[in-house]
Write a structure and sequence with these properties.
Blueprint: H1 2-37, H2 45-61, H3 66-83
Helix pairs in contact: 1-3, 2-3
């Protein structure tokens, strides 16, 4: 029974995670609209670098593997650029 509870907890976390990612993509889409209206390129390398470094530091504080954090960030950033 304990395993089922743990799995249910994972399911709840996954639902919240995907909802958060979807919300982030919506904001990325709106940022893209703003950038297009103002002639700003979707890719802002300095901003991406700052976010990546912040997320790595946050991941380290949370005990997450640095390579994992980087992979997840790269995937999210790539999709964000597609939204823009």
């Amino acid at each position: 029974i304990e395993l089922n509870w743990l799995r249910a907890e994972i399911d709840e976390i996954d639902d919240a995670l995907w909802a958060t990612i979807a919300a982030r993509m919506d904001v990325s889409r709106r940022i893209g609209e703003w950038k297009k209206a103002h002639g700003v390129a979707p890719l802002q390398p300095e901003r991406a670098k700052v976010i990546g470094e912040r997320l790595k530091a946050k991941g380290e504080k949370l005990g997450l593997d640095n390579d994992f954090v980087e992979q997840v960030w790269n995937c999210i950033h790539e999709q964000s650029l597609k939204q823009q």
